[in-house]
Design goal:
The chain has four helices and two strands. The chain is mainly alpha-helical.
Length: 91
């Protein structure tokens, strides 16, 4: 979605899912994070379907084929990844 008109593409456009997530949560997506569609439907921009994850978790999700058409299953896999990294950081 076009949000500015500076002539610099990277500054003028933002992904629709990112814009919706940022407006709903009132903050910017942290650096190194992406907004994913929990049910893998890239036309479903409902806030319940958008989730912010780190690129590190995204890589694990893609590598293992854990993005599904089920919001619940995808969110469970994301939560597992978050727990895995949280426990790793405790040591």
């Amino acid at each position: 979605m076009k949000i500015k008109d500076t002539g610099i593409k990277t500054q003028d456009y933002i992904e629709k899912q990112r814009l919706i997530w940022e407006q709903h949560h009132g903050k910017k997506v942290p650096k190194g994070h992406v907004i994913v569609f929990l049910n893998s439907d890239k036309t479903d921009f409902s806030i319940e379907n958008l989730y912010c994850i780190s690129r590190k978790i995204s890589t694990i999700m893609v590598t293992n084929g854990w993005f599904t058409d089920s919001r619940e299953h995808t969110l469970t896999a994301i939560k597992w990844c978050e727990l895995h990294f949280a426990l790793k950081d405790v040591k």
